[in-house]
């Protein structure tokens, strides 16, 4: 396998020698028969299909259910690299929670002139209903996914923050389980940190955030929009693995100031709700009155301290890409330290000077909607047509505050298994973080997403990307 000199190859150095992280894996791989590996690859795909690990892709015409492609070559990170990453992630997540509290209370960061007030005054993700209220335990972002990209041996950047409802952890767990089932001997040869206890750690972390009115062991429930949601597999998977209840809005009601769950022996109080329902649909009496996915009056119970909602309503502000562009200032303001993990250089189209630069250089930049996700609503300048560039030029001119732009990153590559052998493809990484009142817990690994098409820089599963197991080596 040969890499592209433009991009950092995580497996081999420029001379073709295997890097330290991949030494154990490559020794094992070289001993394997190609025919056996091809059979295993087919088996893995069959296993994912039988398990039901799919997601929905929504288009203007229809919703299509697809299998998420799995690549069986792991992405490997050394223990030393992971220690450095965890320090940076902890710092960032601490700052995010402090920022959320400040934003819904005294807004000291705005008073200090570190970020402009306009960023959230007209932001749909900012909820006036949360002003002056502190969630149980003081935690806003209980489950966080920080998307990272790598551009060099010691160069990791934060691409975006997912503080509302980060998804993908079920694929991290299934990828590992599949790898261990297919290649048990490989894990005997290469010492890899475990990720399998994530559901237990999630349950423990959520229980630690239970409200003061909890009696005995906290009851935890996962609130799902239902079977037609694109991430329903994950909702059901996590509830099952945690030993928590999987509920829909119709299973819950407010009784005597508590949120209660329908059971065979009547309604029983729920202490913590891990919600996978967007803010707008959470409570039809507070938000969207037409919602049938949420629970009427749940926000009243929440504000009265009768239930914990994870993640807290209103945390979507932190997912805003315009807010992201101020994260270096946010980290420094709340921690007193320079960010250990830098942002990708970001141009805010709302700023006149930045907008002029972006419009003059659209063919070289990546343009994103500030509220966009899943790879939708993007312009990748170097691969865009003249028509697409012209369309985005008009969009930016019409509504500049809706867009940010970033340079086209030289994303690192990891090998994938192809019919012709190993071939480099671009990757990113989403580590998963659990936050409780006394601990920030980062699972060693995360979800590596991979652009399966040669030359593609878009790793999102909704745009044709796949996933692979992520190994953090033990010391």
UniProtKB/TrEMBL annotation:
Residues 74-451 form the Circularly permuted ATP-grasp type domain. This is Circularly permuted type 2 ATP-grasp protein. It comes from the Bacteria. SUPFAM superfamilies: Glutathione synthetase ATP-binding domain-like. Pfam families: CP_ATPgrasp_2.
């Amino acid at each position: 396998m040969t890499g592209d000199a433009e991009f950092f190859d995580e497996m081999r150095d420029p001379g073709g020698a295997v890097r330290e992280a991949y030494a154990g894996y490559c020794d094992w791989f070289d001993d394997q028969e190609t025919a056996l590996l091809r059979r295993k690859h087919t088996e893995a795909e069959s296993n994912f299909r039988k398990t039901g690990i799919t997601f929905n892709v929504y288009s203007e015409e229809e919703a299509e259910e697809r299998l998420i492609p799995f690549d069986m070559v792991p992405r490997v990170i050394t223990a030393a690299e992971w220690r450095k990453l965890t320090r940076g992630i902890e710092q960032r997540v601490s700052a995010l929670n402090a920022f959320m509290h400040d934003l819904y209370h005294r807004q000291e960061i705005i008073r200090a002139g570190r970020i402009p007030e306009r960023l959230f005054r007209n932001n749909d993700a900012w909820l006036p209903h949360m002003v002056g209220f502190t969630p149980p335990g003081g935690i806003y972002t209980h489950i966080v996914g920080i998307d990272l990209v790598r551009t060099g041996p010691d160069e990791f950047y934060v691409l975006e923050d997912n503080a509302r409802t980060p998804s993908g952890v079920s694929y991290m767990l299934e990828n590992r389980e599949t790898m261990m089932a297919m290649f048990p001997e490989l894990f005997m040869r290469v010492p890899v940190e475990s990720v399998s206890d994530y559901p237990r750690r999630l349950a423990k972390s959520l229980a630690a955030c239970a409200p003061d009115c909890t009696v005995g062991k906290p009851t935890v429930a996962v609130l799902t929009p239902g079977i037609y949601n694109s991430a329903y597999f994950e909702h059901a998977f996590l509830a099952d693995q945690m030993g928590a209840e999987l509920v829909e809005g119709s299973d819950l009601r407010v009784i005597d100031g508590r949120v209660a769950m329908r059971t065979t022996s009547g309604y029983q109080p729920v202490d913590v709700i891990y919600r996978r329902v967007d803010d707008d649909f959470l409570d039809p009496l507070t938000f969207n009155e037409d919602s049938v996915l949420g629970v009427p009056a749940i926000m009243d119970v929440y504000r009265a301290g009768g239930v914990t909602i994870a993640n807290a309503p209103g945390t979507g502000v932190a997912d805003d890409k315009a807010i992201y562009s101020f994260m270096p200032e946010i980290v420094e303001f709340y921690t007193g330290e320079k960010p250990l993990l830098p942002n990708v250089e970001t141009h805010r189209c709302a700023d006149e000077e930045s907008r002029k630069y972006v419009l003059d250089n659209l063919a070289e930049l990546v343009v994103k909607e500030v509220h966009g996700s899943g790879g939708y609503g993007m312009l990748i300048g170097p691969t865009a047509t003249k028509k697409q560039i012209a369309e985005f030029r008009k969009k930016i001119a019409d509504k500049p505050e809706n867009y940010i732009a970033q340079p086209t990153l030289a994303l690192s590559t990891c090998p994938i298994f192809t019919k012709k052998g190993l071939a480099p493809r671009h990757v990113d990484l989403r580590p998963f973080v659990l936050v409780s009142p006394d601990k920030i817990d980062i699972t060693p690994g995360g979800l590596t997403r991979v652009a399966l098409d040669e030359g593609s820089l878009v790793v999102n599963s909704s745009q044709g990307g796949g996933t692979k197991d992520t190994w953090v080596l033990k010391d």
